[in-house]
Every structure is written in structure tokens, then in C-alpha cells.
Amino acid sequence: MNEALLEVKINRLRAVIAEKKSLLVAFSGGVDSSVVSKVAAEVLGGRSLAATIDSPTLPRRELAIARRLAKEIGIRHCIVQAPDLDPELLRNSCDRCYFCKQGDLALLRKAARQEECEAIAFGVTATDHQEHRPGLRALAEARVFLPLLQAGISKNEMRFIAEKLALSNHGLPSTTCLSSRIPYGQAITLQKLAQVEAAESFLYKEGLSQVRVRHYGNTARIEVFPNEIGTLVFIRHKLIPRLKSLGFSYVTVDMEGYRSGSMDEALPGKEKEGNRGRT
């Protein structure tokens, strides 16, 4: 990666953020929002705020990571408690992320007003924008501030920039909400979300670096990196009883391994194209 180009883009990011009098960053604790929060804290100081939305779709593990990263970055951090899940989200159409993001925006606008923040920023990269995801459509309609996009920073450049900014999560795998583990068209319930979170928590504690437990009713389909599939076989004597105790009758392993957007692979044509890369 071209070091000089990365420095140019970091400076461009600083410049676009510096144009804001105050800023609330939608903060998941992932690499993208961490970079925005880091630069906002550097440029705006106490006029910046990271806000994490806490809902049943957010794993406790990721909430703990967000708390730790915000402290590491040195930015003010607030937890915004989400109300009951929106019926459109629970219905789980292929536009689920659109309705979810609309709900997030309403909560963050309220928090921004309370904290007297001029703008709300999301960690959307230039590469993300090109994919026309449903959630991004909601952000575009709301005309929120997308500093990474304005700075021309791509997804491939993000981890290098995060490393240059000395963020400890620069090498961590990407994360998504728990609802992305349930196939489109199958209703999302609190029970299903709890099953998925408990199953993934078990696997992370067993040392797996990236985990998705896809919920197909009484069947769990596990995705890990291809080089870690052997680990699942090695711990099967613990894995199977644990997942069966959570309510799964069958435990399967996706031999293709983890890949972003695997739940979108069953979508036809245009729907698949419009939703890729989300899960």
C-alpha cells in the first residue's frame, strides 16, 4: 500500500471532519467507525462523541469491544438504548437493513440534539457506496455525513489507515448485527437472536477468529475461515452438545467457509446484487 497516498487520504479525512463544529459518530467498534472516531477526537476534541446503539441485535461481545475502543481512542462515548425491534425488521425482508438504518437514524438524531452535535457521521467507505446496499439507501435519503466517502477512502485502504492510526482493532474481522444470521423471509425473534449469540460466543471462546452461526430453524450452519474448519472437527465433542442445548437439532459446517454476504447468495438477480456484502 502506498504510504504517501494513505497519508494524503488521512489528511483529507481530517480536513472534511474539521469542517464540522461538532460531530456524533455512529460507533460500532468496527474498523471503519473507529477510524472516523479517532480522527474526530483528534480534530474536534470534546466536540466529538461516539454513540453506540444497544439492541438485541448487537452481541454483548461487540458492545464490550465498542466500550474498550472508545476508551482507547479517547472519545466521549454514549450508549443509546434501542426500543423494541421494529416490525419491519422482524419481518426480515431483503430490505431489512433499510428499515434498521432508519430506526438507527431516529435514535442518533435524538442523541445528537441532546448532546448539541451539529452532524451525524457514519463509517461508510467509497467501496461500500458503490454496492448500493439497502442501509446505505436510508443514509443517502437522510443525507448524513459520510467522511470516509468524501475523503475517497476504500475498504481495502481502511485497515492500513487504522494501523497507521495505531488502532488496536485494525486486524480484527468485520462484524454485523445478529439479524444477518437469519435467512430473508424467516421471522426474526428474540429467541433466535439469543441462540445465535450464545452459539457464536461459545465458538469465540474456543479460539475461532471469525464466526457466523446461521439460523435455519432447528439447524445451525457454521461458517468459519477455511483454515479453521478443522478446529470445528477437533472440538465437535463439545460443540455439538452445546449447540443442541441451545435448541438446535442439527449442527452443520459450511465447507466453503466464511465469506461476507453468504446469506445473499440465495437471492435472485437484482435483489442479490443490491444486498451483497452485508452479512
Description:
Helix 1 (3-18) packs across helix 2, helix 2 packs across helix 9 (155-164) and helix 5 runs parallel beside helix 7 (134-142). This protein has 279 residues and is an alpha/beta fold. The strands form 2 sheets. It has a 4-stranded parallel sheet, with helices on both faces. A 3-stranded mixed sheet has the order 5-6-7, with helices on one face. The chain is 48% helix and 12% strand. Helix 3 (60-73) links the parallel strand 2 (48-54) and strand 3 (76-81). The chain is built from 13 helices and 7 strands. It has helices spanning 3-18, 31-44, 60-73, 87-91, 96-115, 126-129, 134-142, 147-150, 155-164, 190-205, 229-234, 236-245, 269-275; strands spanning 23-26, 48-54, 76-81, 119-121, 212-216, 219-223, 250-253. Residues 270-279 have low confidence and may be disordered. The longest helix has 20 residues, at 96-115.
